[in-house]
Design goal:
alpha+beta, STM4215-like, 6-stranded mixed beta sheet, two-stranded antiparallel ribbon, 47% strand, elongated
């Protein structure tokens, strides 16, 4: 029996969103923090919890990770959000709600958090 301790989603997220664009606008993705080069359209992501989700013979054999992709956009972000959710679902992630959208005065960007779950597939 294989023991699973966590879901390695960072490489999956980075691969899925490496060349992500919507309506010819590129949205590069960054882990945990915003870029420092005044981009007006980008994504960030992070995980906030990893837990065992299935046990066999008292050991974890599957796990689940919870995370968020944050959309930052100077314009209308609704189509971007829709495309992100579509891409996540097509790649065996589960969309589990959104955070509160807001406009950030300091950056002058719209900010929209998308929450997801990824279960191990082993």
């Amino acid at each position: 029996m294989k023991i699973v301790t966590d879901v390695k989603i960072n490489p999956i997220i980075e691969k899925l969103f490496k060349d992500f664009e919507v309506d010819n606008i590129k949205f590069p993705i960054f882990y945990r923090q915003s870029p420092h080069n005044n981009l007006k359209n980008y994504l960030t992501y992070y995980t906030y919890s990893t837990q065992p989700s299935l046990f066999g013979d008292d050991v974890p054999i599957a796990s689940i990770a919870y995370g968020t992709i944050d959309v930052y956009s100077e314009g209308n972000y609704l189509k971007v959000v829709e495309e992100i959710k579509k891409k996540l679902i097509e790649n065996n992630f589960t969309w589990n709600g959104d955070g509160t959208p807001e406009y950030e005065e300091d950056t002058k960007l719209n900010h929209y958090p998308i929450n997801f779950i990824k279960e191990s597939e082993d």
